[in-house]
Design goal:
Helix content is about 40%, strand content about 20%. With about 450 residues, it is an alpha+beta fold. The protein binds one RNA strand of 77 nucleotides through helix 3, strand 6, strand 11, helix 14 and helix 16.
RNA sequence: GUGGGUAUGGCCUAGUUGGCUAAGGCGUCAGAUUGUGGCUCUGAAGAUCGUGGGUUCGAGUCCCAUUACCCACCCCA
């Protein structure tokens, strides 16, 4: 028989159990944090009617979407979570309570060239708040608070949530008479950190067709830096010339005003006029989050305010604000840079029960007793040499092995062995459960800051 | 989509101007050690050198094609 060589497609991430357990830990933190802000979980189909997913049209989506037919159906795999959300909200808008707050952590698919940290199948962890007709600016201020909580939950403190407002940029370009080119300009300016001011200027002059004076004016504007207060007061100087610009400044002020009340420290938040986001559907506040010690990773979480979520499906005006964390990429980079905390439990069980008698009944009931304390317990029932049982425990990296032989059973006790230290003690099942619980419940961050 | 590079046991690599049974490390399995894992030592299994063709007495090595993968750009998370 011919053997088919097993392989995983390029651009698809497949993890070994210990890594998968760490990955799931991140997912758990995201779920808990999102839920704690009153976001409802949402799951939508991975496959949708191609027409639905391609409603927005646009070159990149069309090129990258996985599309196929089954019978007469024209189908496609979702390439983000926002379009399915738009369909969902449009479909159920009469049953939903607005503002509608949902989180979704799901895989999305993009048929593009895979690269380091760029996947064809990857997890996005999205939250969005959708309003009916209107949505208060307070929601835009809450988003950074949630991002802050998530990253703190991961164990990080050296990160910065950078915020800007597209109305400020658009209004500013209007002042220069460049309103029609604002999309191209934003995409270019967004790359400032990556390619530098000189190159940005070159692209503005050559590709966007700006005059020398216009380009200089833009570069001077985005060079405004400093504390949040300093940047905001520098913006004051431009007020009164353009209505859109003035609105943007007011919104930015509103977003920054309540940060302290939300518990976001000043050092984790920065007004940054270079942030634009390439996507053109953002209309107001935009967010980007970077790890201060790893700027090369780029943005690990981004999003913003949009004015009309579901315009392709219904007449209703549904404004919203949302962010997306590229979980797969984040995890990949963290792992690659060795930032995942090795102390974080990565075993599928907290304890492995090793029976050493032919009669399995005492071991079975011991395992059940330990489980009743909320522990994850595996019973090892294979008829192997004791040494091999220990080697298995070692390979799984379980923190504890619980040995149960004739002697222990006779005394109604079990031997609890700490696999890391090698220490072993004779305990009652209840005492053993407490020792394991104490070790398991220690608060260990997922990410180790270096 | 555009441009460049790589391909050798499960993984990482060595392999000289083309020349004997393709070398090493990690991992796997067995034993030293029969109720105690990791460390050490000993041994074993495991490769039609991505695939197809060509040049040659002889190809892992040179040439052509092809496929896959990697990197950069584009775009993004």
């Amino acid at each position: 028989m011919d053997i088919i060589k097993p392989r995983t497609l390029s651009g698809f991430m497949e993890l070994l159990p210990d890594k998968q357990i760490r990955f799931e830990k991140l997912v758990q933190i995201l779920r808990d944090t999102y839920a704690s802000y009153g976001f409802a979980p949402l799951d939508t189909p991975a496959i949708e009617d191609a027409q639905i997913l391609l409603a927005k049209g646009g070159g990149e989506t069309e090129k990258q979407i996985y599309r196929f037919t089954k019978g007469d159906s024209d189908l496609a795999l979702r390439f983000d979570l926002t379009v399915p959300l738009a369909k969902y909200v449009a479909l159920h808008c009469n049953e939903l309570a607005f503002p509608f707050r949902r989180f979704q952590i799901s895989k999305v698919y993009r048929g593009e060239r895979a690269q380091r940290g760029r996947f064809r199948e990857f997890y996005q962890a999205d939250i969005d708040i959708i309003g009916d007709g209107k949505l208060d600016i307070l929601n835009e201020a809450e988003i950074p608070a949630i991002i802050y909580k998530v990253f703190r939950g991961f164990g990080l403190s050296r990160f910065q949530i950078r915020v800007n407002n597209r109305k400020i940029l658009s209004g500013f370009y209007d002042m220069l008479g460049l309103g029609d080119k604002s999309g191209d300009i934003m995409r270019t300016v967004d790359k400032l950190d990556k390619i530098g001011a000189d190159k940005v200027k070159l692209i503005l002059l050559e590709d966007c067709g700006l005059t020398e004076a216009q380009a200089d004016e833009i570069l001077r504007f985005i060079a405004i830096r400093g504390t949040n207060g300093e940047v905001l007061s520098a913006l004051e100087g431009y007020l009164g010339k353009n209505e859109l610009f003035d609105t943007g400044v007011a919104e930015l002020k509103a977003v920054t005003a309540n940060l302290a009340a939300f518990g976001v420290p000043e050092e984790n938040f920065a007004v940054d006029l270079t942030i634009a986001r390439g996507l053109d559907y953002y209309t107001g506040t935009v967010y980007e989050t970077t790890l201060l010690d790893h700027p090369e990773i780029g943005s690990v979480c981004s999003g913003g305010r949009y004015d009309n979520l579901a315009g392709y499906y219904i007449e209703k005006q549904l404004p919203g604000v949302g962010i997306s964390i590229g979980l797969t990429r984040l995890f990949y980079v963290l792992d690659e840079q060795d930032l995942l905390n090795p102390a974080l439990p990565s075993a599928p069980a907290d304890a492995l029960v090793l029976p050493m008698t032919d009669d399995m009944a005492p071991a079975i009931s011991l395992a059940e007793t330990l489980r009743s304390f909320g522990l994850r317990v595996q019973l090892y029932g294979e008829q192997k040499k004791f040494k091999q049982k220990m080697a298995y425990a070692n390979k799984l990296q379980v923190p504890f092995a619980v040995l149960l032989g004739e002697d222990e059973i006779a005394q109604g006790l079990c031997s609890l062995k700490n696999m890391a230290t090698g220490e072993q003690q004779l305990l009652t099942p209840q005492e053993a459960a407490k020792v394991i619980l104490d070790a398991v419940n220690a608060d260990i961050p997922v990410i180790l800051e270096k």
